[in-house]
Each structure stands twice: as structure tokens, then as C-alpha cells.
Amino acid sequence: MTTTKPTVVTTKPVAAPPRQHNDLANTGASTGWLTALGVLLAATGALLLLLDRTHRPARR
């Protein structure tokens, strides 16, 4: 009877993935410029509303 030695396969350990910062699901969008964009949009909307109110006469 012959016995065979089990073959041992050695592999390199799996490297860890690069660290990600999870800023809005890694889309590259940071909260700083998104907040500034939101403030700019709100100010533009308020300005357009005021312009519309001044050009259109108030109905009473």
C-alpha cells in the first residue's frame, strides 16, 4: 500500500482594499460644496420669487 502526501498549496494573503472615505457613497461629492450649492439655489429661488412678485401686480 502506498500513501501519498497531501499537497499543500500556499497562496499570498488577500490584500485589503484601498481605504475609502464614504463621502456620499464615494461619488466624489463632498458635503462642503453641496451645501454651498444648496444655499445658492435657495437664494436664486428667493430672488426669482421676489422678481416675479414685483413684475406681476397683486390681485386683491
Provide a count of the helices.
1
Uncertain ranges: none
Estimated radius of gyration: 31 Å
Sheet of most strands: none
Number of beta-strand segments:
0
Span from first to last CA? 108 Å
**Oligomerization state:** single chain
One letter per element, helices H and strands E, the order comes to H
Overall shape: it is rod-shaped
Judged by helices, strands and strand pairing, the structural class is: mainly alpha
Overall residue-averaged pLDDT value: 79
Helix content, binned percent: 40-55%
Strand residue percentage = under 5%
Transmembrane segments: 32-51
Biased composition (Low complexity): 1-18
Keywords: Membrane, Transmembrane, Transmembrane helix
Region (Disordered): 1-21
Q: What does this protein structure show overall?
A:
This protein is an all-alpha fold. Helices cover 42% and strands 0% of the residues. The protein contains one helix and no strands.
Notable features of this structure?
mainly alpha, 1 helix
In short:
With 60 residues, the protein is mainly α. The chain is built from one helix and no strands.
